[in-house]
Each structure stands twice: as C-alpha cells, then as structure tokens.
Hints:
Elements: H1 12-26, H2 30-37, H3 41-52, H4 54-57, E1 63-67, H5 73-82, E2 88-93, H6 96-105, E3 113-116, E4 129-135, H7 144-154, E5 155-166, H8 171-193, H9 198-208, H10 212-222, E6 226-232, E7 237-243
The protein binds S-adenosylmethionine.
The site of S-adenosylmethionine (SAM) has 22 residues, from helix 1 and helix 5.
Amino acid sequence: MGAAPAGAAGDRASAARAVRDMFTSIAPRYDLLNHVLSFNVDRVWWRRTARTFQHILTRSDARILDLCCGTGDMAFALQREAGKSSPQIVGADFAHAMLQRAAVKSAGEAAPCWIEADALCLPFPPGHFDLVTSAFGFRNLADYDAGLREILRVLRPCGEVGILDFGEPQGAMGAIYRIYFRNVLPRVGTLISGVRGPYAYLPASVERFPSPQEMLARMMRTGFAEAAWTPYTFRIAGLYRGKKAA
Ligand SMILES: C[S@@+](CC[C@H](N)C(=O)[O-])C[C@H]1O[C@@H](n2cnc3c(N)ncnc32)[C@H](O)[C@@H]1O
C-alpha cells in the first residue's frame, strides 16, 4: 500500500514518477502555499517535532536524516534545535527542484547537506543514522512498508524515527476541517500554484493514508521495537515515533 496519484498506472514506479512530477511542478510556490494553507501552523509542527528529538540533536556526534525533505523546513527546524551541537544533518528528496530551493535557503556552517535520493532505495549503509525524520513526505511514498523497511535499515541499533504527517480530526471540529481541506484548500492551492492536480491529491492522499492504529501496527510488523503516535492540533497532524531494537 502506498500513494496513488490520480492518472498514474497502478505500479510503484508510475506512482513515484507522478509524485515527483507533481512536486517538481509546485516547487516554486511550495513554501508560500504551505504557510498560507496551514495558517503558519506548519512551523509549529516542525518545531514541536524537532523538540521531541532534542536528546539526539544535542549530541555533536549524531547523524540525522530528514527524508522527503522538500524545501528543507523540517531539516532547518532540526538544525535550530541542535544549536551549537552541530550534529550532521542530511536532507534527502527525489525532486531536484525542491532541493534547489532548500539549497538557496541554507545558511551557516551547520546547514544541512542535501542529497537527491529515493526514500525507497537510500544511498546509505545499514545502521548509519541515529535519527530519521520525515515531515509530510512519508504519505507520498509509493510503498509504505518498503519505506519503513528502508528507514529501519539505515537506523543504527536504538536509533529513532519521527514521521510527521496529516491525520483526520474527529467530531464537529473534524466536520469543519473536512470542508476546508476538501473544498477550500484545493481551490486556493490550484489558484496560487497555477497547477491543477496536486492540491486535489493532498486530501485524497490523507484519506488513503493508514489510520494511526494501522500505521503503528505496520511499524511493529516492520521490526521497530517501539512505536507510538502523538496527535497535534486536534489530530490535524500527528507524529509517529519508533525505535529500533538494541
Ligand atoms: C509534502 S512535501 C514535504 C516537504 C517537507 N518535508 C516539508 O515538511 O515541507 C513531500 C516531499 O516528499 C518527496 N518525496 C515523495 N516521495 C519520495 C521518494 N520516494 N523519495 C524521496 N522523496 C520523495 C517529494 O519530492 C516532496 O518534496
């Protein structure tokens, strides 16, 4: 099970190509749209996620991978949280245009290093990283189980993963949010980006994404020793945490 953009053939390679083309097409307006459509709450979510892993980020010998890094905001939040400790932070994404924008935004000696790579086939040896994060990227993978297996492979024993992604709020709040997410957001997104498609794909991909319960079960089945989910802002988003066995 994985992302299935409209119009892509049913196989993994076609889905991945459609996702990459989509992000390439919206890269110039991606940051603006992110902040407008989330009312800037995205910044709070990245910061909160980074704070969660402070115990790793403040180790100067730590190696951190931000997967599906896009234009780099999660990686920058990790860098800020790390402060003077300056661990090694690598941002990886398969859309060149997104990485180009991340590189333009980079500043300072401790800036993350950017790598063009597919999350399902990472160019790193087993056990390389102390922490792998992914913000709003994991949901776009063409095969979720393969993504989890690859994350587990590159983590060292006792290494941790943090997957931040959208959820589905419940109750009255959920009903109001769904009107916004399904009807308003795709229209505004299409208007500002000038590209039809990606902002209709967003709510569809969230609906298709496994529930927190199922996602945690998948993490445990993949081989994580621990898995937990923390809802953010009425469950609009949430953080999946996992730990590799010693
Ligand atoms: C919604 S953006 C998130 C970007 C950033 N993490 C953020 O929080 O703004 C999703 C990113 O995932 C990337 N992505 C999707 N599938 C990928 C894959 N298989 N390998 C690498 N990157 C992928 C896309 O290119 C895109 O830049």
